[in-house]
């Protein structure tokens, strides 16, 4: 345990060092007219990603379900000299998504980067209730799909490609140490990226929710820790791979690259502020992925700026 903590601390020191190294001119593909959207960004990791992206010179749209707190969060960054705009967005509300898309069209015309950070978790510490499983799955998985599908037509066509970054978790790994999926049939289905489909992922989460309703989920081979949250992030991880594969078929000049990352156990409201990583460090890999000059990277899972297995 001590050894793993030392390794983690060393990696975080390396990430902090990398953050201080500026992108060179030949790596910088973006300008002040590059538009990034971050969902669920009024606090925590989302807020920090908005700040870091704006710090790199992008125009960033901070979104929040709660308009009042979103306006205040954007105001803080605007007063700090960052080029940040705000618009309300509820990824579970079709009319809210439509209103947001129309606003993007009218004010900006397009976006270049979409970071899906909006999400919920109702378990803290060792508590593992599935009482809010429907809300967790709906928000973390279905809501993420909703906004991605709405935003794709608005993503700018350019040689550098647009970027989608999904905030997920190691808890959603198929062979994770802390939240392992023991259902071998489901694991095999989600690991087979060549035949994996969105419909197969939908069926998996529907089966989980059905077992929750029937009270049989504990014997279903699902992860034992943060079960509903883990399943939701497992689905997002799988969908990232399906999405990347579909988008890779787009012609040159219309490419969109999709990846996901785990920010770690961050000190935010979602963890009950029990995490061991700052929001600044947690946001770093997401920003790094959004700004990567290497266009060939897509359909991958990252943590601390390193690729990890699904």
TrEMBL record:
<dbReference type="InterPro" id="IPR002347">
    <property type="entry name" value="SDR_fam"/>
</dbReference>
<dbReference type="Pfam" id="PF00106">
    <property type="entry name" value="adh_short"/>
</dbReference>
<dbReference type="InterPro" id="IPR036291">
    <property type="entry name" value="NAD(P)-bd_dom_sf"/>
</dbReference>
<keyword id="KW-0934">Plastid</keyword>
<comment type="similarity">
    <text>Belongs to the short-chain dehydrogenases/reductases (SDR) family.</text>
</comment>
<keyword id="KW-0521">NADP</keyword>
<dbReference type="InterPro" id="IPR045313">
    <property type="entry name" value="CBR1-like"/>
</dbReference>
<protein>
    <recommendedName>
        <fullName>Short-chain dehydrogenase/reductase</fullName>
        <ecNumber>1.1.1.-</ecNumber>
    </recommendedName>
</protein>
<keyword id="KW-0150">Chloroplast</keyword>
<keyword id="KW-0560">Oxidoreductase</keyword>
């Amino acid at each position: 345990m001590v050894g793993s903590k030392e390794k983690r601390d060393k990696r975080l020191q390396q990430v902090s060092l990398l953050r201080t190294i500026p992108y060179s001119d030949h790596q910088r593909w973006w300008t002040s007219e590059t538009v990034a959207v971050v969902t669920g960004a009024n606090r925590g990791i989302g807020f920090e990603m908005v700040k870091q992206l704006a710090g790199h010179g992008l125009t960033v749209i901070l979104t929040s379900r709660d308009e009042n707190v979103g306006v205040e969060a954007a105001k803080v960054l605007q007063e700090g000299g960052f080029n940040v705009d705000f618009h309300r967005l509820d990824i579970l509300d079709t009319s809210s998504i439509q209103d947001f898309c129309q606003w993007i069209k009218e004010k900006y015309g397009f976006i270049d980067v979409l970071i899906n950070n909006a999400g919920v978790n109702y378990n803290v510490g060792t508590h593992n209730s599935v009482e809010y499983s429907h809300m967790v799955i709906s928000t973390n998985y279905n809501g993420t799909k909703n906004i991605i599908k709405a935003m794709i037509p608005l993503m700018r066509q350019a040689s550098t490609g647009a970027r989608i970054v999904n905030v997920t978790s190691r808890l959603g790994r198929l062979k994770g140490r802390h939240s392992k999926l023991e259902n071998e049939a489901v694991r095999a289905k989600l690991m087979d990226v060549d035949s994996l489909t969105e419909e197969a992922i939908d069926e998996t989460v529907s089966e989980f929710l059905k077992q929750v309703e029937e009270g049989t989920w504990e014997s279903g081979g699902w992860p034992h820790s943060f079960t509903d949250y883990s399943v939701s992030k497992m689905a997002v991880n799988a969908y990232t791979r399906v999405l990347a594969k579909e988008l890779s078929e787009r012609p040159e000049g219309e490419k969109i690259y999709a990846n996901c990352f785990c920010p770690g156990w961050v000190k935010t409201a979602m963890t009950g502020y029990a995490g061991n990583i700052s929001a600044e460090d947690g946001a770093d890999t997401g920003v790094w992925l959004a700004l990567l000059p290497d266009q060939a990277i897509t359909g991958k899972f990252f943590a601390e700026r390193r690729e990890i297995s699904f």
